[in-house]
Amino acid sequence: MTTPAPAPAPAVMAFPAGFRWGTATAAYQIEGAADEDGRTPSIWDTFSRTPGKVRNGDTGDIAADHYHRMSEDIALLSSLGVTDYRFSVAWPRIQPTGRGPAVQKGLDFYRRLVDELRDAGIRPVATLYHWDLPQELETAGGWPRRETAERFAEFASLTAEALGDRVATWTTLNEPWCVAFLGYAAGVHAPGLTSPVAALRAAHHLNLAHGRAVQALRAALPAESEVSLTLNLHSLRLRTDSAADREAARRIDALGNRLFLDPVFHGRLPGDLVRDTASVTDWSFVEDGDLAVASTPVDSLGVNYYAPATVEAGRSEAPSPWPTTEPHVGFPRTPGPRTAMDWPVDAQGLYELLSRLRDELPGVPLLVTENGAAYEDYADPEGRVRDPERVAYLHGHLAAVHRAIADGADVRGYFLWSLLDNFEWAYGYSKRFGIVHVDFATQRRTPKDSARWYAAVIARGGLPG
Ligand code: IFM
Hints:
By secondary structure, the chain is of the alpha/beta class.
């Protein structure tokens, strides 16, 4: 007689039934196949091929070769037991010049992806823009140009018509703050400009593009589809409670949070931000009706969180992603543990952010669409990748989500960033965020200890004690 297998230990912190457990990736960071099947360069191909822009001269040309290893990666997702998988659609695969009819081979790749996911019982969550603007659209003016919002709505429409019946959740934009301010003000992301006015124009046109895409999606999708937007909101800490530090935090909150939340959820621009930025722009690029479009209702809000920002009155380094807050804001270094990105580990910041959204956006369901950490991972001689710091990070942050839910935040899911080690933008392949290790020389995938830990959390529906 065989002894029955022991029942899994009861979850100490159980998440609500139906909670969505996922992982997240983005096209340019994992797909590779940069010039296959009609794909043409995006701004990230151009930027990464420009000497000095990306560490070690790395590019996304091959990345994690997901374009050719998609089935293997779906098998990894299945072994984790995830309910959902968040990926992005590469605009230059669908519309290489940013306009005109869709390329069928490009659409076919995503058709296969969503079909295989669904066959594996995994819900596809598609993001339309995770930073790979077709280069031709950037050459024509990029996000500072109004026309780009129209082009994005067209791309949304084509993609939704092709995949609409198979994708449960659609996200318009990923982290428009990064697009506008890292790309057009700090110049550390593509396209690498350092123009404050271009960044503010980009931010507005991203809000407009989001609203136009929501309209296009609603027109093309079945009624039950979920339409969403993902923001990297800033969880703010003040160095002291002085009036000057509070003023610094107000400025960062306006530019980092309310510049997106107010147009999308309230159809207005923050008045204090318009005053703060008066020496840079009169905002005359905002046309009548734009904010009504930007606030076309969504079904949920995606929140990406990695670390809080501590602010004080002072100066930050130039060129700053916060151009219009100068000379009022500095970012002091805080003590405590840090990840390989040199970001502080602070799960309380996630709790505070979710609680703020509970209070400010009642009735808007939330998804944590990214959370995770980079560490210096390597395979040991037995081929095992031990990443206890990542497990501790994930445990702390999931506990924060659990506490936020217990305190009334309507958080419906959690997407761990990331499934695979990948191209971490300006850091190239030097930073590993995956719960699956990728040996970029051989493309061999090795689940890290954190992958086994996450699979056990999902199987239990909660965190162990
Ligand atoms: O890798 C990125 C992702 O593309 C967007 N959010 C933050 C992650 C870690 O930097």
